[in-house]
Amino acid sequence: MENTPGWSTRQLADLAGTTERAVRHYHQVGLVPEPERRANGYKRYGVRHLVRVLRIRRLSRLGLSLTRVAELGDADGHPRDVLRALEEELSRDIERLRRTRDEVTSMLRQSAPIDLPPDLGRAVTEAAVSPSDRLLAVVMAQVLGPSVIDAYTHVLRSGGTSSLSPAFDRLPADADGRARQDLAERWSPPAQVLKMFADFPTAREVCADAPCGERHARSAITLAVRELYNPAQIDVLLRVRTRHRAVGAP
Predict the structure, then answer these.
(1) What's the predicted TM-score (pTM) here?
(2) 9-75: which CATH topology?
(3) What is the pLDDT of residues 153-195, one digit of tens each?
(4) 53: which of 16, 83, 143, 226 fits an S-S bond (Cβ 3.0–4.6 Å)?
C-alpha cells in the first residue's frame, strides 16, 4: 500500500497549476472526492483527481461559477449545453461592453458630462448652458420620460434659447415686473414653441410618461427650480409657462 503510486496535495496542486488551498476548497464544496490515504495518513491523488481539478479550473476560467460546475456532476462528457448557454451569456456581455466602450469613447472625445444621458449631455455641452441649467437637466433626465428629454435636447441643439440665457442668468432677484415680462416674451416666441410641439407632440404632456409618475416628477423639478434659481428667475419661468399654455402647450 505504501508503494502505491500517487500524488500528494501539493504535487496535485502543482500539476494542475493551482494551490493546495484551492484543492481543499474543492473537497469542502463537494467538487472533488476525497482520495484514499496512505498508511501514514497522507492523501494519495491519482490521474482522475488531476483531470477533475483541471476540468474545474478550465470551466471556472471560462466564467462558470463553482455552483454551476457542481451541477455538471462527475461526468467526463463534453458539457455542450452548458457551454452553449455560456456562449450566449458572453455574447450579451460583449455587446454590453461594446456599448459601454462606445459611450466612454464619446465622453472622452466630446468631454460630455457623465451624469447625463449621452445625447442630452452632448447637447448641454454644445449649448454651453449655465451651471444651474445643467444641474436642472440632470434632475430632468432622472424624472422625465424619453419623449420630453428628446424634445429638450432638440431645443438645446436648435439654439432657440441660448442667446437669452445670459440675460436670464444675470437677472437679479429684485428685478421689476417689466424686466421679467420682457425676458419672458423674448424667450418664448409662439412660433418657436409651436414648432417644438409639432416636432415632438408627446412633449405636450411634460410628465405624462415620467417613469415614476407625474406627481413625483413635478415635485422633483419644483424642488430643483427653487434651489437653483432666484425668485425673479422663477417668475420668468412661470411667465414663459403661461405663454406656452396660450399656444396649446401644457
Answers:
(1) 0.55
(2) Multidrug-efflux Transporter Regulator; Chain: A; Domain 2 (1.10.1660)
(3) 888 887 655 556 788 889 999 999 999 999 888 876 555 555 5
(4) 16
